[in-house]
Specification:
Layout (H helix, E strand, L loop, with lengths): L1 H7 L20 E4 L2 E4 H17 L6 H10 L2 H11 L7 H24 L4 H23 L11
Antiparallel strand pairs: 1-2
Length: 153
């Protein structure tokens, strides 16, 4: 009886901390019981936390941190910009493929931040990549009809 009522009911909105998407974007989430959880966050934050813990006491060469903070997050940034500009549609498999290196970079970035809250590499990446992402989001907001749905990509 309860299941019949649930099927006919309006879909429940998940808490913001689990799914920061509106119901029309729940395709970007996985369902855990009756709650939607953001697919990217489900992978990103646990993996970044593991990298952070493994980074305690580590002092890798400077080039390793440049690769981790600058290069590894680039595919996720390109994916976000490409989606916002309408170059391709959302694909869960692509999202997961770009989220794993993003998580490694984020975890190492968190470690650098905890070591030095004024770390120029960390803040340079945060400011630079955030500016690019916000510009793509602004463009989508200003040109909502300009997005294409190229299913071939």
């Amino acid at each position: 009886m309860r299941r019949q009522r649930e099927r006919g009911a309006v879909e429940r909105i998940s808490p913001l901390w689990l799914a920061h998407h509106y119901p029309e974007d729940y395709d970007r989430c996985v369902r855990i019981r009756r709650t939607h959880v953001c697919r990217r966050c489900l992978v990103l934050y646990p993996l970044a936390s593991v990298v952070l813990v493994l980074s305690f006491g580590a002092s890798p060469p400077a080039w390793v941190d440049v690769v981790a903070l600058v290069v590894l997050p680039l595919p996720a940034l390109v994916e976000l910009v490409g989606e916002q500009l309408g170059r391709w549609r959302y694909r869960p498999t692509r999202q997961m493929a770009v989220t794993v290196p993003l998580a490694v970079g984020l975890g190492r970035g968190f470690a650098r931040y905890l070591d030095d809250q004024a770390d120029p590499l960390f803040w340079g990446v945060v400011v630079g990549y955030t500016t690019i992402a916000l510009a793509a989001l602004w463009w989508r907001w200003r040109h909502p009809g300009g997005r294409t749905r190229d299913a071939s990509v």
